[in-house]
Structure formats: C-alpha cells, structure tokens
Specification:
Number of helices: 2
Structural class: mainly alpha
Strand content: under 5%
Number of strands: 0
Distance between the termini: 106 Å
Radius of gyration: 31 Å
Number of domains: 1
Shape: rod-shaped
C-alpha cells in the first residue's frame, strides 16, 4: 500500500510541474529563454550580414581585377 501512495505522490508532483509549465507558457514563456533566443537571432543576423558584405566585397574586387586586366590588354594592343 505504501508503494501506491508513493507512486500517487510522484504522479501528483509531475502533474503539478506540467501545470506550472503550461501556466508559464500561457503567460508568455520563460522570459530568460526569450531574451536568449532574441540575442542568438541577432548574432546570427549579424553573422549573415557580415558574410553577405564579404561576398559583395569579394565580387567587387574580382570585377575590378577583371576590368584592370581588360584595360591592360587594350593598352597592349593599342601600342
């Protein structure tokens, strides 16, 4: 009989935890987790922007390099 009572107490404790979690989520969840998620998203966005900027810069440099090479070829043929 004691085992049944102990099991009932554990079940009640688990049920309380579930209810508490549901209530917290209904209120808007854990504020700390939300803040961490927002910060993580900001970091990821900054990282993506940095990658895009580097890619644009690399393309620009390659284009300038091609233009310079074209100009050198034109100069050689005109001489």
């Amino acid at each position: 009989m004691e085992r049944n009572q102990w099991q009932l107490l554990q079940d009640l404790e688990e049920e309380r935890k579930k209810q508490k979690k549901k209530k917290q989520e209904a209120k808007g969840g854990n504020q700390g987790e939300k803040k961490q998620d927002e910060e993580r998203k900001k970091r990821e966005m900054k990282k993506e922007e940095r990658k895009k900027k580097e890619k644009r810069e690399k393309k620009k440099q390659e284009k300038e390099k091609r233009e310079k090479k074209k100009q050198e070829n034109v100069d050689k043929t005109s001489v």
